[in-house]
Design a protein that fits this description.
By secondary structure, this protein is an all-alpha fold. The protein is built from 12 helices and 2 strands. The structure holds fe (ii) ion (2 copies).
């Protein structure tokens, strides 16, 4: 099946004003058809964030208006799904960081059987399918951090800056993280082929862009990015091991080998220098940080479940 992601979201008739709840959405923004919704939102995000030389300002604004509504419907729906658990997060900084770090063991999708299987059993084709999905859902950690740090308090901002600088290979093109993944994708020709990208991986990328590019979700984004640093190393170890077993050379595996260790350090620093101080200064941000972390983990859990369904039954 081919998705028509070129068809933009439209403003009318999807929005009906509802006197009690404000706005109600139907049709184009209907999340009941996520395999149509997420390719469209991914495309809208690409169009919104890609630098251009200009164009028709008014049609661009209308397009952004519609896609931002669709995006908000999606994020608010995801928030609703994790709200109860998020409310259990403490508001005192040290206790909050402990709660947050506990997500590594108890968060949604943690300890999924997919990863030991990738490490020990997956075929080359299965690994390639998995990596293709992962690359498609990758929103670019560097840009997400850059968008998130705008107008944060200095201590958190400095930590996001250090993290960003590592993403930038500390100023060396050869060490930049994004291109390391591109190199793997090119070598394995992950962008070629007909197998559809499952909506769950696009939803994960859409969530991260939505959180980082809307200031109302800035603290959600701090939580979501922090939980990636917290949980990525465990998965990266398995993926790297699986690729090694399948004979994929070390220079192509570098993205995963690097994140298996570097993100342990990133996570400790993110929690100590960004999350802890932000909550200590403003206890009210504990809830959105917790929600962001849980939404991101839930989006990952949904991917792993779909990946297993596709890989273990084919
Ligand atoms: Fe990275
Ligand atoms: Fe990192």
């Amino acid at each position: 099946m081919r998705f028509d992601d070129r068809r933009p979201f439209s403003l009318a008739p999807p929005i009906e004003r509802d006197r009690t709840s404000g706005v109600r959405f139907t049709d184009e923004t209907d999340l009941a058809a996520p395999d149509l919704f997420h390719p469209r939102l991914a495309r809208a995000h690409r169009e919104r964030l890609t630098p251009t030389t200009g164009g028709d300002v008014w049609s661009e604004l209308a397009r952004d208006h519609a896609s931002r509504i669709a995006e908000a419907v999606f994020v608010e729906t995801e928030r609703g799904a994790i709200a109860d658990r998020a409310r259990t997060a403490p508001r005192e900084a040290e206790a909050f960081v402990r709660w947050f770090e506990d997500l590594r063991e108890t968060g949604p999708g943690q300890g999924d059987g997919l990863f030991p299987w990738l490490a020990r059993e997956a075929s080359h084709d299965a690994m390639r399918w998995f990596l293709r999905q992962e690359v498609a859902g990758e929103a670019g950690f560097d840009d997400l951090v850059a968008m998130t740090q705008v107008k944060l308090p200095s201590r958190a901002k400095l930590e996001l800056a250090r993290n960003y600088w590592d993403e930038m290979g500390q100023g060396r093109a050869a060490g930049m993280h994004g291109p390391l993944l591109d190199k793997l994708a090119d070598a394995l020709r992950l962008h070629e082929g007909d197998e559809p990208i499952v909506w769950e991986s696009l939803a994960l990328g859409n969530l991260m862009v939505a959180l980082a590019s809307n200031r109302r979700y800035a603290y959600h984004s701090v939580g979501a990015l922090g939980v990636i640093e917290l949980t990525a190393p465990g998965r990266a170890v398995d993926v790297n091991e699986g690729m090694k077993r399948l004979g994929i050379p070390g220079d192509l595996r570098r993205y995963y080998a690097l994140h298996a260790t570097l993100d342990v350090k990133h996570s400790l620093a993110w929690n100590a220098e960004a999350i802890g101080p932000l909550v200590a200064e403003t206890p009210d941000v504990a809830l959105p940080i917790a929600e962001g972390a849980l939404m991101r983990l839930e989006a990952g859990r949904r991917c792993f479940e779909r990946y297993r369904e596709e890989l273990w039954t084919s």
